[in-house]
Amino acid sequence: MIEHALHLLQHTYGYSHFRGQQQDIIDNALHGNDSLVLMPTGGGKSLCYQIPALVRPGLGIVVSPLIALMQDQVSALRQLGIAGAFLNSTLSAEEKRHLAQDLYQGNVDILYIAPERLVQPHTLQWLQQFPISLIAIDEAHCVAQWGHDFRADYLELHQLSTAFPGVPLMALTATATETTQQEIAQRLALRQPSVFLSSFDRPNIHYSVQPKNDARKQLIKFLAQHKKESGIVYCLSRKKVESTAKWLSEKGVKALPYHAGLPVNLRAHHLERFLKEDAIVMVATIAFGMGIDKPDVRFVCHLDLPKSMEAYYQETGRAGRDGEPAHAWMVYGLNDVVQLKQMVEQSEANEQHKQNERIKLDALLGWCEVTHCRRSALLAYFGETLPKACGNCDTCSTPPPTWDATVAAQKLLSCIYRTGQRFGSTYVIDVLRGKTSERTESLKHHELSTFGIGKDLNENQWRSILRQLMVLGYVSADAERYGALVLQEKARPLLRGMETLSLRQDLEEKLTKAASGTARVSWSDRQLWEALRTERKRLAQEHEVPPYQIFHDAVLMQMMENRPQSKIDMLQISGIGDKKYERYGEAFLGVVRQFAVSP
């Protein structure tokens, strides 16, 4: 059976060999065994369930959480000549009848379906009459209540193991700590699953984090380095999504808003533009992006702090799915911390869940403040060790200096104490820097010994010190009192001069453009590169599919570098199979031949 799988890989998908653990995962499923697959975004998860679903007799079922993802995956399968279909609320009664007829006639290879529909009793009973080859549960972390993207519908999927005895189950996700892995296996009732744990490392992504000083100014400076590239900008609130998208548009950026509060038709239109057009910047809440299979997202920006390391990893993983260089960029500040902590405290979750969320947020804050390799610290959170510094993150390219902040920290802690531990960061820093106002005078804080003792540092420097003191556990923000700063027991020995403290010295980041796919294009090849992209866009519009479903950027890059002159040459390019060549090969050969290099 593995020979059949390899034939499909080479002739249908256009790849010469399996990557990483793909072959072992496929072989395990072909033998009818359950599996839990953890593989980073862009690692080739879909092949792991699509190929065994095609090799084993019967219908492959894929549980998918989002309608947009189903449609995108099915469209991509059809481009490969595979009979894919989906069952969701977008289908009309007539379309459902046609689908049922195709299923009865055996004309569907792989069926995508949402969890809430699959677990309905009549749906389960209906599907039980068909031979099923495999059931894949994509985005399986959604089943974990301690995870970052919990969906109650996933809890009912435990029925699959009894409803379809003998059918291999495969749970797949890009993000899961060891605790979450155990929870996934238990809640899905996987039967002695083989666990396939790939490296969490995404070496093509450059990670950078900087303090939030003027977020919009910082963002536009970053985007100036990524013109003609597609990307995502995440914001915490719907209001901020809309205002940021509008502001970027006014600055000449092709930016679109996306959040759950927009009309369904408008969301669909914006998603279609993002998938089919080049250089679109989608400004969105985290509701956008799960499973969106757009391989050429060159950057993911966070204007607000995510909720956890898992959420950050999942969201940034949407960049560079094609393996080409990409950038994960984030700014954050104290207000983000206070807002997220307020959200945790005001939620209706039980105390245990709240405590878990606090721990996750603290872990993310600690990661933001690291002074060593950022990638190494990220992987360490997921239990993975990086042998050496990556050389592809901000802390590697520009190691942050540290300084003896003992006296400065004592000034700040003392000011918090003397103002009564009743005020937020802005007011405390104003007192430190000697900024008079009606409020300081009415409270007589201008008479305090700490008033003005921090004039030697600017506001951003004091915010950096305070942020790090919070991460290190010297200070906390009381969410119930609007972020009032409160000293912790750990602050006592520092205030008394019994210990010293070194902190990270924040510098204005010197923005260096992470190498992008187009950065590899030399000036002499630029015309061919643009011609290939133009032809791809023309074909995409003609066939009404996103450009990347014609060919990924990485495939065009190989065409540009190798300049194929025949069908044999073209089929040597990774990502071009028989069906893709039949549909598009000659058109691209024609483009390449126009730019033949003289001997």
UniProtKB/TrEMBL annotation:
Domain Helicase ATP-binding: 26-194
Substrates-to-products reaction catalysed: Couples ATP hydrolysis with the unwinding of duplex DNA by translocating in the 3'-5' direction
Enzyme Commission number(s) from the entry: 5.6.2.4
Domain of life: Bacteria
SUPFAM superfamilies (UniProt xref): HRDC-like, P-loop containing nucleoside triphosphate hydrolases
Alphabetized UniProt keyword annotations: ATP-binding, DNA damage, DNA recombination, DNA repair, DNA-binding, Helicase, Hydrolase, Isomerase, Metal-binding, Nucleotide-binding, Zinc
UniProt GO molecular function: 3'-5' DNA helicase activity; ATP binding; DNA binding; four-way junction helicase activity; hydrolase activity; metal ion binding
GO aspect biological process, one term: DNA recombination
EC top class named in words: isomerase
Start and end residues of each HRDC domain: 522-599
Domain Helicase C-terminal: 215-365
Gene3D superfamilies: HRDC domain, P-loop containing nucleotide triphosphate hydrolases, Winged helix-like DNA-binding domain superfamily/Winged helix DNA-binding domain
Gene Ontology CC: one annotated term: bacterial nucleoid
Similarity annotation: Belongs to the helicase family. RecQ subfamily.
Protein name per Swiss-Prot or TrEMBL: DNA helicase RecQ
This protein's encoding gene: recQ
